[in-house]
């Protein structure tokens, strides 16, 4: 493997998810950091300092009240949490749980960043829908790209997403080659209530080096799967995709590393699943070889 390919491989390691930034200067910090303070009016927009909040007030005051309405509706939705906790506390803990889930799902982050980069000139909102936090980035998690021409339409069904999206895209410090917008919507979390909110993220360092043909030919799912295979790659490893399983249909389509014959059953092979780290025994007809795809400009 040449040095360029090795450098690309190094850049593919899962990076810290950088999901919050100062609304004025766009200083980005890790999710859960206490370095940012929320506006006291809308309790949604965050700043790294009083100076930045003051500097942004001429723009923010135009929508602060609208954002406060969005926040109040989110608090209302969060009612019914753990006994002895406030609605605002429930909402805060719900969002923290969703962020932890999102940041822990490496393949989901790659699906989102791929779509956001591919359509960055369309000011897209990347919508992520999941039934619960127990789900990973499998078929029950939906990732959709909605361009501005769609989400600005009065008939679009996500009004509480539009207001903060306009704020983010319209800010003078927003750069489409650096930042993207994602909305997370979980049907039911531990408290039993739904949770949905919009946030901005920063593109990982390897995304600008994806070859244009890859953006045109690969789906977000295929791209993320190839990134995951490279992150788990071992010299001489063979990667396979499960298929035709009847007793464990939820594993069909999952990928893993073929470890060899099952020592306890000569009719089965052991596959180390990439999404869960578990090992399963399957028959030879229940997996197929997965070829590697070129991704980066240096590989073409």
TrEMBL record:
Residues 22-64 form the MYND-type domain. Gene3D superfamilies: 6.10.140.2220. The keyword Zinc applies. Pfam families: zf-MYND. Keywords: Metal-binding, Zinc, Zinc-finger. GO terms for molecular function: zinc ion binding. InterPro entries: Znf_MYND. This is MYND-type domain-containing protein. It comes from Mantoniella antarctica. The lineage of its organism: Eukaryota, Viridiplantae, Chlorophyta, Mamiellophyceae, Mamiellales.
